[in-house]
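Repro:
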Amino acid sequence: MAYRPQLNPDALPIHAEPEQAAQLLGGGQPPRPMPPPQQPQAQQGYGRPPMNQGYNHQHPHGYHQTPPLQKSFSPPPPQNYGQPQRPSISRPPPTPAPPQGVDPTLFPLFKAVDKDGSGQLSEKELRAALVNGDWTSFDPHTVRMMIRMFDTDRSGTIGFNEFCGLWGFLAAWRSLFDRFDADGSGSISYQEYSNALAAFGYRLSPQFVQLLFRSYDKRGQNAISFDLFVQSCISLKRMTEVFKKYDDDRDGYITLSFEEFLTEILRQR
């Protein structure tokens, strides 16, 4: 069977909602929240690019002293002779206030990632902001998956409200990832991956789990990074949804025509 029957046979596996999974695994405790972004250093990690430092209100005055009068018949000094001169100072524009009703701690981070100032994050900008614990960039397919999931207006980009939803989603998955990363290595081994799938409600053969694990071990390190762990769980969830749509009697077996099979495969792309 592809999934373990629940009390509600139409309910998705608990891993579909990471907050619910974290509460179940943690004895009813909600997942720990993502800490607010802190002031980073250049070229540093998980969604924390450099931020604008703001204004410097200390300015040099540059006063000139008046020279002593001369007794020679020289032309009179210019009108502003001896008066202090202030150099022209170019200031950056003020940072706009965050939209009302949103998390203000994420707004500076969003503005720093939004390199072109468009108010929308492209796939390239979002990928530059998301890195794993070992500072490797997110897999491009994972980034595209995140955009498809949270791009509610179907613009192909991520606005600030959509970014807040995406950030919270990744925070919940990070909490689960840390639970199953038993050795604290920053990646998921085969045994840890097998334990995670079992905890999420799947009953799969070791041979299939091994095949799934190798499919997402894209870096060939016999381990799955955070971004690929999320990608694999979401993909498995979607395949489970497809299966359940055809498994009317919930016996773990379905019958598909060839075209139905191809249609479902194409929809997953």
